[in-house]
């Protein structure tokens, strides 16, 4: 009796799909929190303190966005 060669492809677990979604949501949450914290902390600085670190008040949101994208 001969057994034919069959290729069985392993299907991905549905848990891996949900795990990827959960990981994505965690990353979005982390970026959002970092953006909010960075914006808040930089906004609390005086114009002089911001100038000392090379940031103008108008650049705060841009700087916070850049920081959040690195997460």
Describe the structure.
The protein has 71 residues and is mainly α. It has one domain (17-69). It has 3 helices and no strands. Helix 1 runs antiparallel to helix 3. The model has no long low-confidence stretch (mean pLDDT 89).
Query: Mind describing the biggest β-sheet?
Result: none
How many H/I helices? 3
Reading the helices and strands in chain order gives: HHH
Distance between the first and last residues' Cα: 59 Å
By DSSP, the count of extended strands is: 0
Give the percentage of residues in beta strands. under 5%
Oligomer: single chain
Structural class: mainly alpha
Count of all domains: 1
Mean pLDDT: 89
Report low-confidence residues grouped into runs of 5 or more: none
Shape summary:
rod-shaped
| Rg over C-alpha atoms, rounded to the nearest angstrom | 24 Å
Give the % helix: 55-70%
Question: SSE layout and pairings?
Answer:
Elements (H helix, E strand, L loop, with lengths): L13 H30 L3 H6 L7 H10 L2
Helix pairs in contact: 1-3
Provide keyphrases for this structure.
mainly alpha
């Amino acid at each position: 009796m001969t057994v034919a060669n069959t290729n069985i492809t392993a299907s991905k677990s549905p848990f891996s799909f949900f795990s990827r979604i959960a990981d994505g949501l965690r990353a979005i949450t982390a970026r959002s929190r970092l953006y909010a914290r960075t914006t808040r902390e930089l906004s609390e600085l005086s114009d002089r303190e911001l100038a000392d670190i090379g940031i103008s008040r108008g650049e705060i949101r841009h700087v916070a966005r850049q920081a959040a994208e690195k997460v």
